[in-house]
Amino acid sequence: MARPLCLLFDCDGTLVDSEPLLADEMETSLTAAGLPFQASDYIGEFRGARFRHIVAELERRHGAVDPLHLEVLERDMRANLNRRLATDLKPITGATEALASLTGHPMGVVSNGPVNKIRTSLMATRLEAVFGDHLFSAYEAQCWKPDPCLYHHAASLMGYAAEDCVAIDDAIVGVKAALAAGMTVIHLNRFPDAEQTPEGAITITSMFQLPTVISRLESTRHLATSQA
Questions:
Q1: pLDDT tens, position by position, 169-224
Q2: Domain boundary among 44, 65, 86
Q3: Whole-number Å distance between alpha carbons of 22 and 39
Q4: What is the mean pLDDT of residues 58-62?
Q5: Of 125, 122, 141, nearest to 133 (Cα)?
């Protein structure tokens, strides 16, 4: 009998509602550094992107900033964000219930964020016990979405082939990364009026829908195995 599908979750915007807090801190820090930025820019243009990619694009538009200043800026921004995550963060609606329904599956978190931010977010929302140490950060792998290597890295450490993994991600960069990695991909599209799910991914608009989709994928997989 085949092992249960391995479920790999993005963190920000998929499990936890951290993006408004992150966008707010970025607006304060980047604007103070001379890189005009509004919280709405993150949600509208840069959602899920690596922080340094965002900085590079803003520098292209507005001029370069001293690298040492940027290093201090990022350190202080992340410290402020971690304090807010620990006190203000909430899980994405339906995430707690979905995870409770999927406990028979091995699960990991695959994020472009630093591992301490992932851990802080999961602890603040009481989701850390679900994942244990299965936290896969782009900063540790040195490879960021939309490059598929981060999802490959996570699958390998979970002991699964890519085709036996399901990636659940809300950001287009993450969806594209997981598709390129050869995984089944579920796009949590919380902004269906503004975003289009990339071809090849399955769309859900609420985490409450996730257990039903996973059950359907498992049924299809078992049927294919029995007919092979």
A1: 999 999 999 999 999 999 999 988 888 999 999 999 999 999 999 999 999 987 77
A2: 86
A3: 8
A4: 93
A5: 122
Q: Are 120 and 159 in a shared domain?
A: yes
**Residue 227 has what pLDDT?**
65
User: Which domain CATH number covers 57?
Assistant: 1.10.150.240
Phi and psi of 3, rounded to 5°? -65, 155
Domain boundaries, position 118: 6-17+90-227
Q: Could you say which DSSP state residue 137 is in?
A: E
Instruction: Report the phi/psi class of residue 159: left, alpha or beta, with left for phi > 0 and alpha for psi in -120 to 50.
Output: left
Q: Are residues 116 and 216 in the same domain?
A: yes
Residues 43 and 102 occupy one common structural domain: no
* pTM for the whole structure: 0.85
Write the DSSP assignment of 161-187 as a string of letters.
Answer: -GGGEEEEESSHHHHHHHHHTT-EEEE
User: Quick check: helix, strand or coil at residue 214?
Assistant: helix
A 10 A CB-CB count for 12 gives: 24
Segment 105-146, tens digit of pLDDT: 999 999 999 999 999 999 999 999 999 999 999 999 999 999
Structure tokens at 125: 């929302």
Q: Please state, rounded to an integer, the average pLDDT across all residues of the chain.
A: 92
